[in-house]
């Protein structure tokens, strides 16, 4: 107790120290402003245009910076930190190539509505526009993939800009905000006055829903015979999982959660149908296609979810709850639009909602579908199956790990065979589908959740896109457990080339990849390899027990495909079932 | 159904705002026919008027996307109400002394004016809606148009709204 109040007191003292109005450099303002925003870890990489900023860090022990080995690693780490904690992720890079190396990470965060504040240096204001050394118009380059951006030309604007950036990034529909700081601005001195308020006339996200619209939804639920909920990442981002649970248990409406919505609702719950779409459950897809009422809660009708748009949910009245009005009606015509924060909307709705009484037959039907068509694969005693590996990882982590994935087959298997029950447990690039995201995002997730087990599931392709960050894990003893499902091939591309391009396997062979055990060891990370179930379990358990970072390479069957699969251009009930038939 | 839309956008007078707005139109597949930007009734805010072609669904999507730009304060679908829409055109035409009386006749009919006379050319200035300018340009073509510059449409809703 006394220890706790002691820390609280020191925290207050720190805030007082940081907010002290005095004449300091732009760089010091930046660091202090970040601390005042509650930032406890920044991921970054120095360079010429941010030398003043890094100089201000020197000997400033309040500020925690993690040096990655590539700017892309820094921003994916910041992203993993943000997705797993709900706080704003922050990264810093220098001008020119440093800034452009962030572009993929910015787009990744933008597509999945992840709050980031991205800080870049730029050449001095006098050099802007002259094609100076390491100059790039990063504000212009990233305009289509940022929620907002700033080029700070006056050091006096810095505190306000940083405060606004955090506000914009983490309210409304969240997203990345870029702050570009020319070198002379980070060097200039001015009186630091911390910004406390935000005045943005053009930015007022609608949080509270229109009550009439909620009433319409409640009436629609009462009348529906075949209602379903389609829940997306918005439910997690608004912290609405408790309200969602209440809403579902009260209305007894079957629920499907999208890839980014996994964890918003317990996967094992009898009303949960798994995730929908291209590699989703037979039950979720069939239910969508037969529903007479579809309530979309914080999802955006992405094409990987809807399949062929014109044949999507053909019988359903559509209700769409979203904080971003631009998402409503964008892809799917919507009868009942509800603009608002998911949590706020559900709080209103829970109080009004009743059990969907006309849906008993439907609920029974869904139970029958679930029982007859679960995810299935043909296990093998001679070869290691990736699905088995994911299930084993689930079992040995008791389903309580934070799992980050890369993109491709292993990502879908992780979604299929690691049932998530808690929000912010799955960190995955859904919208942009960014290879190279899986491993560095785990570093950020671990930094934000030092007491949780963080598992990063990768393929042998994506792992090689950001493998250099193993150094960061080793040096800082960040105990991420990296699983590499190594099928020696670009698996998802192989799958499409097999099924859609008549076995014409073009440039997918990853032979010549490094020995991942040696690669790990070269960085000082513990490495394991497994080629059968017994080795796999033993290696994985040892990796989990190991106090530091570990890499486990699982050599899995090359020809394994992800099923079910909805071929692009088909409606989502046109599923190839493969082994799971 | 594709038709012409006139949208007025009140924006912060900050660097890069024009780029944010015009970039959005391009990305979302909406072709800008004309764009005008200038001061508005409020210091610190500019008013853009954009004429663009597209279907109604796209227009609605564009309006919603525009509101997502932090520097956009207000979006008004001017074209959906009775409006006054005007543009200014400068037309430099061949005008040998012998042809001038005829040209002046056209200029007068359109309530346009001659703002420059050279040895064998004239600059005509016309203000009006786009149809009027189109018609006038059409009539002046036979004399030989050397240069044409149109400002693009600026517009306002009529009455007290």
Automatic annotation (TrEMBL), chain A:
The EC number(s) this enzyme carries: 2.2.1.6
One of the record's GO molecular function terms: acetolactate synthase activity
Cofactor note: Binds 1 Mg(2+) ion per subunit. Binds 1 thiamine pyrophosphate per subunit.
Known catalytic reactions: 2 pyruvate + H(+) = (2S)-2-acetolactate + CO2
Keyword Cytoplasm attached: no
Cofactors that this protein relies on: Mg(2+); thiamine diphosphate
Pathway(s) it belongs to: Amino-acid biosynthesis; L-valine biosynthesis; L-valine from pyruvate: step 1/4; Amino-acid biosynthesis; L-isoleucine biosynthesis; L-isoleucine from 2-oxobutanoate: step 1/4
Residue ranges of domain Thiamine pyrophosphate enzyme N-terminal TPP-binding in the record: 25-139
A Gene Ontology biological process term: L-valine biosynthetic process
Enzymatic class: transferase
Matches recorded under Pfam families: TPP_enzyme_C, TPP_enzyme_M, TPP_enzyme_N
Oxidoreductase in keyword set: no
Keywords: Amino-acid biosynthesis, Branched-chain amino acid biosynthesis, FAD, Flavoprotein, Magnesium, Metal-binding, Thiamine pyrophosphate, Transferase
Residue intervals of the Thiamine pyrophosphate enzyme TPP-binding domain: 406-554
GO cellular component: acetolactate synthase complex
Coiled-coil portions: none
Segments forming domain Thiamine pyrophosphate enzyme central: 214-347
Cross-referenced Gene3D superfamilies: 3.40.50.970, TPP-binding domain
Protein name: Acetolactate synthase
Organism: Cohnella zeiphila
Lineage: Bacteria, Bacillati, Bacillota, Bacilli, Bacillales
UniProtKB/TrEMBL annotation, chain B:
Pathway linked to the protein: Amino-acid biosynthesis; L-isoleucine biosynthesis; L-isoleucine from 2-oxobutanoate: step 1/4; Amino-acid biosynthesis; L-valine biosynthesis; L-valine from pyruvate: step 1/4
Keywords: Amino-acid biosynthesis, Branched-chain amino acid biosynthesis, Transferase
The keyword 4Fe-4S belongs to this UniProt entry's keyword annotation: no
Gene3D superfamilies documented for this protein: 3.30.70.260, ACT-like. Chain A, domain 2
GO molecular function, one term: acetolactate synthase regulator activity
E.C. designation(s): 2.2.1.6
Protein name: Acetolactate synthase small subunit
Native source species: Cohnella zeiphila
Gene: ilvN
């Amino acid at each position: 107790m006394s220890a706790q109040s002691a820390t609280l007191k020191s925290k207050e003292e720190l805030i007082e120290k940081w907010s002290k109005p005095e004449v300091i450099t732009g760089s010091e303002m930046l660091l202090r402003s970040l601390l005042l925003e509650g930032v406890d870890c920044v991921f970054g990489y120095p360079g010429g245009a941010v030398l003043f900023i890094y100089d201000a860090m020197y000997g400033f022990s309040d500020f925690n910076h993690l040096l990655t080995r590539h700017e892309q690693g820094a921003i994916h780490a910041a992203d993993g930190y943000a997705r797993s904690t709900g706080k704003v992720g922050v990264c810093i890079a220098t001008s020119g190539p440093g800034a452009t190396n962030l572009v993929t990470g910015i787009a990744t965060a933008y597509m999945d509505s992840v709050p980031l504040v991205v800080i870049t240096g730029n050449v001095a204001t006098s050099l802007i526009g002259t094609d100076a050394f390491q100059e790039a118009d990063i504000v212009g380059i990233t305009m289509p993939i940022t929620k907002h951006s700033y080029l700070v030309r006056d050091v006096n604007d810095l505190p306000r800009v940083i405060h606004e950036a955090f506000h914009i990034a983490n309210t409304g529909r969240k997203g990345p905000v870029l702050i570009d700081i020319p070198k002379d601005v980070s060097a200039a001195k001015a009186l630091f006055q911390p910004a406390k308020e935000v005045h943005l006339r053009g930015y007022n996200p609608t949080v509270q829903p229109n009550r009439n619209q909620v009433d319409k939804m409640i009436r629609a639920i009462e009348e529906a015979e075949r209602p379903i909920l389609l829940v997306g990442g918005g439910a997690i981002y608004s912290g609405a999982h408790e309200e969602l649970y209440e809403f579902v248990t009260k209305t007894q409406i079957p629920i499907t959660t999208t890839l980014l919505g996994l964890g918003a609702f317990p996967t094992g719950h009898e009303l949960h149908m798994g995730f929908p779409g291209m590699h989703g459950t037979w039950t979720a897809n069939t239910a969508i296609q037969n529903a007479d009422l579809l309530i979309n809660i914080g999802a955006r009708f992405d094409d990987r979810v809807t399949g062929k748009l014109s044949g999507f949910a053909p019988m359903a009245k559509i209700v769409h709850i979203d904080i971003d009005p631009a998402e409503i009606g964008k892809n799917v015509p919507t009868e009942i639009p509800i603009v608002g924060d998911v949590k706020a909307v559900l709080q209103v709705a829970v109080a009004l909602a009743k059990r969907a009484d006309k849906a008993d037959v439907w609920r029974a039907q869904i139970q029958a579908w679930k029982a007859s068509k679960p995810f299935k694969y043909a296990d093998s005693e001679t070869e290691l199956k990736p699905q088995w590996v994911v299930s084993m990882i689930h079992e040995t982590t008791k389903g309580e790990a934070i799992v980050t994935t890369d993109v491709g087959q292993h990502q879908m298997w992780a979604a299929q065979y690691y049932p998530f029950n808690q929000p912010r447990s799955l960190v995955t690039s859904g919208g942009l589908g960014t290879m190279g995201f899986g491993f560095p995002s785990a570093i950020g997730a671990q930094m934000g959740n030092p007491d949780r087990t963080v598992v990063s599931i990768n393929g042998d392709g994506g792992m090689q896109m950001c493998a250099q960050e193993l150094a960061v894990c080793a040096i800082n003893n960040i105990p991420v457990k990296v699983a590499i499902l190594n099928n020696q091939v670009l698996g998802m591309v192989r799958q499409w080339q097999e099924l859609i391009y008549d076995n014409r396997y073009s440039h997918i062979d990853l032979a010549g990849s490094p020995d991942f055990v040696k690669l790990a060891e070269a960085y000082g990370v513990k490495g394991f390899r497994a080629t059968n179930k017994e080795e796999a379990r033993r290696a994985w358990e040892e990796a989990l027990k190991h106090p530091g970072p570990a890499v486990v390479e699982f050599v899995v069957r090359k020809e394994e495909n992800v099923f079910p699969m909805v071929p692009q251009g088909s409606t989502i009930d046109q599923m190839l079932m493969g082994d799971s038939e | 159904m594709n038709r012409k839309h006139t949208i007025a956008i009140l924006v912060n007078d900050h660097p890069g705002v024009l780029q944010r707005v015009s970039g959005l139109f391009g990305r979302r597949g909406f072709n800008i026919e004309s764009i005008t930007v200038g001061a508005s009734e409020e210091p610190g805010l500019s008013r853009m008027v954009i004429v663009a072609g597209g279907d109604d669904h796209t227009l609605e999507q564009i309006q919603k996307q525009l509101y997502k730009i932090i520097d956009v304060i207000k979006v008004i679908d001017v074209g959906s109400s009775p409006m006054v829409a005007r543009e200014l055109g400068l037309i430099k035409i061949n005008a040998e002394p012998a042809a001038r009386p005829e040209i002046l006749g056209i200029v007068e009919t359109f309530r346009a004016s001659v703002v420059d006379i050279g040895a064998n050319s004239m600059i005509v200035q016309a203000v009006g809606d786009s149809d009027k300018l189109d018609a006038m340009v059409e009539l002046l073509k036979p004399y030989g148009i050397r240069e044409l510059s149109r400002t693009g449409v600026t517009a306002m809703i009529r009455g007290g709204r």
